[in-house]
Amino acid sequence: MRIVYLLAFFVVGCFAGNHEKNLIFDVVFLIDGSQAAMPVFDNFTSFIGNFMAPYNVGLSGARVGLIVVAPDLDDQAPPAAQLNTITSQANLIATLKLLKNDYADFDRTGQVLTYNLRVVSSFEYTSPTAGYRSNINNHLLAYITSTTSFYTDPVPMAQLIIESKKYGLITVGVGENIDHDKLNTISGGSPCTFLAKTAAELNDVIKPIQRHIMFADAHNGNYCHKK
Hints:
Layout: H1 2-22, E1 25-32, H2 41-52, E2 62-69, H3 89-102, H4 113-121, E3 139-145, H5 155-164, E4 168-174, H6 180-186, E5 193-196, H7 206-218
Parallel strand pairs: 1-2, 1-3, 3-4, 4-5
């Protein structure tokens, strides 16, 4: 009987793994580049690489966009990747390695998240020529941050994106100085807000978020949209 159970778990695990590999979705990672993020920025990029490892990263599978959120507009770099920039998992890892030196500044507190939410939901970023696929429903913004200090309040813009259903929105807060309630108002709801008390605990939230992607794949791209 024990052998039967082990075989059953093996089959279910293989099925889930194959299903993840075959998922077709768009995800844009918005990554805190403020002063607070400097000590944990390498953990952020490692988290993204680990998070995307089970998927078929590329133009025919899981498309990945990358934006580093600067503390102010003077320091804001353009998107590091549109949704048609990254062609493989290896290409993703190589691009992630460039972010710290080429796209982040870390010189001030706060974040221009509102501005970057406008960018990622703009016609230019969501056009077919930029890689956004209007023929699929599963689109996700994943915002990773070590602070809830903002240049302007990002909540109204976040709610507009959620209501438009251009993307679902998940927030990941790292560290002790995170306002959980603030992240809840930015994300699609408390089930789409995740907290890691330390950067070392970041990988603990990978599986729960991956389950959201799988759920959205089966439910018309719905994440935690407020009704």
